[in-house]
Amino acid sequence: xxxxxxxxxxxxxxxxxxxxxxxxxxxRLNESDRPFSVEELAQAMQTADVLxxxxxxxxxxxxxxxxxxxxxxxxxxxxxxxxxxxxxxxQRGITVTNTPGVLTDDTADVAMALILAVPRRMHEGVQxxxxxxxxxxxxxxxxxxxxxxxxLGIIGMGRIGQAVARRAxxxxxxxxxxxxxPVSSRIEESLEATYWDSLDQMLARMDIVSINCPxxxxxxHLINARRLGLMKPEAYIINxxxxxxxxxxxxxxxxxxxxxxxxxxxxxxxxxxxxxELIGLPNVLLLPHMGSATIEGRTEMGEKVIINIKTFADxxxxxxxxxxxxx
Length: 327
Ligand code: 8YV
Description:
This protein is an alpha/beta fold. It has two domains: 2-100 and 294-326, NAD(P)-binding Rossmann-like Domain (Rossmann fold, 3-Layer(aba) Sandwich), CATH 3.40.50.720; 104-286, 3-Layer(aba) Sandwich (Rossmann fold), CATH 3.40.50. 35% of the residues lie in helices and 13% in strands.
């Protein structure tokens, strides 16, 4: 029964989630604010029936090889599961679940905030005000770029990509997208979205590019120096997905060389490290991986983790099982 399951949670979660976990399971919670070390993770995998990791826990093949036979479920607190070697988990008969859906709107809001803020030079404006450097309005003061009528190219048209598209349409943008395959014609029509089979061709024509795909072997450094070179010099790039999708060093070089106009980034290749070449630029707005950071979202993510664990413990297929083939 669910009540006896030993559930190890690697990070501090919202209090109501932790409370519920303690009621339902033999829950071992992380009281500290720091992540588990590799050894602590390994130990958790050797003793827990269920592991609840987050994006900051790298559960690779080596760690997976040290898992005990009792470990049956890895219930990720998060939508992206690129920190987990899902294929080797499944090979070992370990089910992996995630928490999609409940963070869609929050993450799309942050993407839209960056889409609004970067071309309109918002954070440069904030810096000017905070430095007391507003010397008065002039007709050419702080001119940015208009959004309406511009082309937004979304890479990855899943739940979050579509939510970004809906928001951008309300601001008068034209929606274009690249995906492994086109979305249904119903969705395409409702968004009046144009599908590009060729990412290269799409990139060359977009005013803003938003990354909304998962990080997989196929999307690692999808945006590299060559592809940045295809973009218009007036174009901006926004990333609220995973840092690894962009070659961060190449992005910094492209921005500094004026090959693209700027970037809004919520995620980084080697978090929490940020390429120093990206810091301090007026046309680069950086956020500390806060796309899903709302009280509501993080609580609902925890509730989803609990539902996945309970369903699994009751002998049923958990609602958010991750299937490696579709990654
Ligand atoms: C979380 C995320 O902050 O869900 C994801 O994939 O990136 C964010 O919502 C974090 O990853 C939770 O593990």
